[in-house]
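Re: [ENG-882] Designed sequences occasionally contain unexpected residues at chain ends

Forwarding the minimal case from QA. Structure tokens:
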């Protein structure tokens, strides 16, 4: 009887470490999955263009040059709307790339939309970064309509007014990806901004 009881205790004792080992492995797998999900959400997905087809909301904004930008007057052209703010460090890295694309593609409308800042702050920033076609969204109405939650955020809007691509965050390949979208959804004409 004594030998049988000792054997029974050993078998139960052997099961406990085995269960602990499996639980620890399960937690390790869970930790790896959480890390992979975070890497995908914050590093990989923001760099991929998001091709959702939806009608763009109306846009009518004052421009830094004193005119107006009205997206409805851009029908028939491909338009990129680049939402940014001067305090945003990733924007400082992205703006030169977007502006280089704009200069290299004169047939595409690229409108830089400053969000939530006064003209006195925007003007010197735009001059420093040699930005043209700057629209002002001081009360963030248009940014909210587009669902912008971080900066920079860039949208491609086709000739029929539908959103064809969206990029969230800094993307070092943005020029190439904008070129691909322009090749797919062009041809286009010059800007819809009026003096």
């Amino acid at each position: 009887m004594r030998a049988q009881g000792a054997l029974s205790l050993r078998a139960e004792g052997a099961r406990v470490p085995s269960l602990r080992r499996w639980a620890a492995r399960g937690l390790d797998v869970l930790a790896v999955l959480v890390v992979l999900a975070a890497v995908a959400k914050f590093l990989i997905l923001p760099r991929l263009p998001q091709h959702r087809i939806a009608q763009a909301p109306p846009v009518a904004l004052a421009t830094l040059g004193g005119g107006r930008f009205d997206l409805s007057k851009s029908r028939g052209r491909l338009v990129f709307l680049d939402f940014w703010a001067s305090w945003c460090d990733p924007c400082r890295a992205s703006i030169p790339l977007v502006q280089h694309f704009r200069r290299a593609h004169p047939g595409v409308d690229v409108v830089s939309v400053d969000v939530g800042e006064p003209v006195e702050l925007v003007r010197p920033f735009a001059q420093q970064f040699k930005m043209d076609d700057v629209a002002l969204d001081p009360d963030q109405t248009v940014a909210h309509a587009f669902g912008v939650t971080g900066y920079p955020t860039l949208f491609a809007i086709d000739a029929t007014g539908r959103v064809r691509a969206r990029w969230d965050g800094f993307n070092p390949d943005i020029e190439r990806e904008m070129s691909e979208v322009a090749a797919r959804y062009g041809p286009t004409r010059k800007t819809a901004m009026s003096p």
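QA comment: On inspection the terminal residues look reasonable. Residues 2-44 form the longest helix (43 residues). Proposing we downgrade this to a documentation issue.
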